[in-house]
Amino acid sequence: MPPIAVFSLVLMCLLLMAAIGAALLALRPVVPRAGLHTELMGEALVHDRAGVSTTARGELERHVEGRRLQVLAWLADRKLRAARLAVDFALAALLMAGMCLLSNILVS
What we know:
Layout: H1 3-27, H2 36-50, H3 54-107
């Protein structure tokens, strides 16, 4: 087997392992470091204990919901980046497999 074929097979295997690792990372639940409950409800609990007036309660609820939406969007962005990375590694591995097959056909 020519050295270029061996190199491309090894590279393909490494890329496939990286793709599997990235896919498993994408499947893993994404939770903020502080904890999901703390991140989503922490601000609301602090303001609830402080005894906010009824006039400011609407503004506070909008602020808390905006913060929750921001956290969930950040978590979804992390998840989509991991899935995109898995697809990129899988495509690179397929490209290396194709190159290996072509080099074996040309050498034979």
